[in-house]
Amino acid sequence: MRMPVQPASLRQFVLLSFFMALIPLGVLLWQSHSALSDVSRYAIAEAESSVANVRRAENMQKLVNDIERSVLQFSILKTDALSQLAATHLNNYQQNLGSVCLNLAQPVLCAQQQKQLELLFDSYLHESNEELSPILQKIRQQQVQLTQVIWALLEQRLQQQQVYAEEAQSHLAWQTVALVVLTLLLVLWASARITAPVKMLDTMIRSIGQASHHFPHDKVDGPRELTELGEQLRWLASRLQQLEALRLILLRHASHELKTPLSSIREGCALLSEQLVGPLNAQQMEVVSLLNGSADRLSVLTEQLLDYNKLLQQAKPEFGWHDSHTLLQNCFNDHALSLQQREQKIVLDCQLPRIYTDSMLFRRILDNLINNAQAYGAEGSNVWVNLRQHDKFMLLDVANNGTPIPAELRAKLFEPFQRGKAPRFDAVQGSGLGLSIVADCARLLGGLAEIIDVNYADVCIQVRLPLVEDAV
C-alpha cells in the first residue's frame, strides 16, 4: 500500500529559499571583491609611479639649482672642494635624468638636456661665469620643460585610472542588476510556494477579530507548520468566543454589584463631611475628603464600564428623525457647569437642522467628545462644535485648544483603556474608554471616528456618519 506524501515543512521551504537567494548574492560578492581588488592594485601601482616621478622632478629641480650655484662659485674661487661638489651634483642629475627619461616619451628633450650636461661638465673647470651662464640657463629651461612633461604624464595617468575605474564600475553595475533581478525572481518563486496558506491564515486571524466570528471552514493546505497553525487558530477562535462571553458576563455583574456598596460609601462620606455624626478635626476631614474623591472617581469609572458594557450589547441602532439643535443644546446644558468652571465656551456651527440617527448613540458620541474637550482643553478657550454635510456624509467636528496629539498615537487612542500623554485638567482621572465609546458608537451607526488637523484648533475629533438626503 502506497503511503501518502507528507507535506514539506516550512523550515525546508525557508532554507531552500534562502539558499537559492544567496547563490546570486555570493556571485555578486565575489565579482565585487575581484573588481575592487583589480582597481585597488591598479591605483596603488599608478600612485607609486606618480609619486616617484614627482619626487624625481623635485629632486632634479633642486639639483639644477645646486649645479648652478656650485659651478658659479667654482668659477670664482677655483677650489678643489667646489670642483668636486659640482661634479657630484652633475653626476646625480645625470642619474635622475636617465631614470626619468625611461618613463617619458621625450627622447629629443632628454638628449638635449644630456648634451648640455656634458658640455657643462667639460667646460665648467676653465670657463668664466659669462661663458657658463648660457649653458646653465639652457639647462634650467629644459628642466622646466621636463617638469611640465612629468606633470602632463601624471595627469594623463590619472585620467586613465579614472576611465579604468569607471569601466569597472559600469561592468559591476550591470552584473549587480542582473544578479539582483535573478535573486528577485528566485525569491518570488519561493514565496509563491507559501503565499496561499499564509493568506488563508490571514483570513482566519481577521475573522477572529470580528464580532460575528464567522470562522472559515476550509483547512490550511501547505507546509506542516502552517497547517498546524491553522488548527491552533481554529481552537483559539473557539476559545476566544468563550472568553468573550465570560468577559461580558463578568463586566455586567461586576459593574452592577459595585454600585450598591459604592452608594453606601458615598452616603457615609457625605454624612461624615457634613459632620452629622459628630465633629471632625482637620486631619479627619482631610481623610474624608480623600475618600470622597476616590468614591467619586470609582463612581465615574463604574458608570463608564456600565455604559461601555451596554454599548457592546447593543446590536442594532434605533434610527429616527431628530432635531439637531435640540440634541446639541441638551448636551451643552448637561455640561454647562463643568465648562463654566474652566471658563470654556461652546462655539456652535450647525448646518443640518434635522438628522436621521439613533439619538442615544449620537448623544453618547457628543457627551464623550464634549467631556474630552472640557477635560483636556485649555482653560478659557473655545470648544468648537460643527455639524455639516460633506458629500454623502454627516460630519461632526468637536475641536479645542490644548496639547496636540501626535500622529502615531491617534489611532491607538480609539482602543479601549488607551490614554494619551496629555494631562487632564478636571478632578477625574480618565479610564481610556471615552474615545473607544465614540468609535464604537460611530461604528454602530455605520461611520467612523478619527483625529484630524484643522487650522483653528490644536485638537479636532471628527465623526463621519452616513447622511440621509431628506435630512437636509
TrEMBL record:
PROSITE patterns listed in its UniProt record: HIS_KIN
GO terms classed as biological process: osmosensory signaling via phosphorelay pathway
InterPro entries in UniProt: BphY/WalK/GraS-like, HATPase_C_sf, HATPase_dom, His_kinase_dom, HisK_dim/P_dom, HisK_dim/P_sf, Sig_transdc_His_kin-like_C
Keyword tRNA-binding: no
Keywords: ATP-binding, Kinase, Nucleotide-binding, Phosphoprotein, Transferase, Two-component regulatory system
Protein's UniProt keywords contain ATP-binding: yes
Gene3D superfamilies tied to this protein: 1.10.287.130, 6.10.340.10, Histidine kinase-like ATPase, C-terminal domain
Ranges for domain Histidine kinase: 253-469
EC number: 2.7.13.3
GO molecular function: ATP binding; phosphorelay response regulator activity; phosphorelay sensor kinase activity; protein kinase activator activity
CDD domains in the cross-refs: HisKA (cd00082)
Stored Pfam families: HATPase_c (PF02518), HisKA (PF00512)
Catalysed conversion reaction: ATP + protein L-histidine = ADP + protein N-phospho-L-histidine
Designated name of the protein: histidine kinase
Organism: Rheinheimera mesophila
